[in-house]
Structure formats: C-alpha cells, structure tokens
Amino acid sequence: MATVYRPRIVIADDHRLLAQVCKPLLEPEFDVVGIAYDGYELLESAIKLKPDAAIVDIAMPRLNGLDAGEHLKRLMPGIKLVFMTGATSARVVAEAFSIGASAYVVKSAGTEELFIALRKALKGQSFISSAITGSTLDLMTTQKLERPWSKRLTFRQRSIFQLLVEGRSMKEASSFLNISVSAISFHKYRIMKRLGATTNSELVQIAIRKGIV
Q: What string of DSSP letters covers the chain?
C-alpha cells in the first residue's frame, strides 16, 4: 500500500507551552518535524529539516518572526509562511504578506482556522483570520506593501538592532553573532544614523512602534 505524503511543518513560537501543545493537535494531518523558540532557531531548523510550511509567531526574541520569515523566503522561496500571532494591526498584516506570507492567523481564533490556513497555504492559496476586521483589511489595502524602515538596514543590522533593544550588551551581541565588539559598535552607529535615533531610548521606542519588542 502506497504511503500518503504528509506535509512537513516547523513551528516557531517563543511560548514553549503553546508550541508544544500545537504539535499533537496538528500531527493527525501533518508531520511536525521541528519546534523553534526564536527566529534564529527557525532558520536553522528550516534549513536542516526542509519543511513545506512554517507556523511563525511575530514577537520572538533574538530575531522576530518578520525578519526571520523574510530571510527564510530568500533561502527557501518555496516554503509557505503561516503567521500565527496576537497582532491585528493593518501595518503588521501588510508587512507579513509583503515578505511572502501565505496566511495570517490570530492566536485568539479557533484551532480550525489554523488547519484551514495550513491547507490553503499548501495549495498556494492565501488566508487571513476572521478576527482581522473589515476596517483593518480596508486600511491594509491602502498601505504600501513594503517594510520601508527595514530596507534602511541590512539583515545583520536588523539582527543587531533587535539584540540591543532587548537589553543585551554589545559584548553579548558580539558573542551571539560571532563578530567583534567593534563591529557591533560600528553597526550600532550606522543603525542609529539610518533610523534617525540619537539615544538608546529612541531606538527602543522605534522597536516598540515596529512591533519588534
């Protein structure tokens, strides 16, 4: 008897309990081949495990879901991104689809929405959670589907930016990214200049506005 192919899924969410609870819920229909707890773990897991789709939270430590998802689509253009998050703003929804999301599910939605989102994504279709209101969708369609602020920064700079606004020292960021402290300092200077920030507190405020922290 021929074996029926089951789509391979990776889950990325820093809420460990939620990620671990999702796994057995999905496994009757999908093969959950990995769980990641931040954006870097997602990239490492996806490159190693070659999943068909990734369920991605947006607000994750070290590297947020939008930056991780954007980089992942460049590395693996065929992977389907299903964002599962608590964010419902038009800007965040628009950004998610601008980087190649197939589906957007709000965490307050029922489990069935996640299954529908995955099924549609794997068929090459799009899905937006019913929790996203009509007014949000209307606003989303009027916004430019791009991440203009992030285009001012390289992927490395966005990685450093997030680590610093999370309160990590330049030495800690240096150790994590395996580059020198002087390189971190140089990138921080460039980041502040490109984002128009003059103090660390202004960097944090920008990160909060952009949903990074």
A: -PPPP--EEEEE-S-HHHHHHHHHHHTTTSEEEEEESSHHHHHHHHHHH--SEEEE-SS-SSS-HHHHHHHHHHH-TTPEEEEEES---HHHHHHHHHTTEEEEEETTS-HHHHHHHHHHHHTT--EE-TTS-HHHHHHHHHS-SS-HHHHTS-HHHHHHHHHHHTT--HHHHHHHHTS-HHHHHHHHHHHHHHHT--SHHHHHHHHHHTT--
Q: How far apart are the first and last CA of the chain?
A: 50
Q: What is the DSSP string of 25-72?
A: HHTTTSEEEEEESSHHHHHHHHHHH--SEEEE-SS-SSS-HHHHHHHH
Is the same domain home to 102 and 53? yes
How many independent structural domains does the chain possess?
Answer: 2
Whole-number pLDDT of residue 158 = 87
pLDDT averaged per 10 residues, the chain (length 213): 84 92 94 96 96 95 92 95 88 86 91 95 93 65 55 84 89 89 90 88 82 66
In this predicted structure, what is the pLDDT of residue 2?
59
Domain range enclosing 187: 148-209
- Residue keyed to tokens 């202004």: 202
Phi and psi dihedrals of 89, rounded to 5? -70, 150
- Last residue in a domain, options 123, 142, 161: 142
Predicted confidence at residue 136, as pLDDT, reads 60
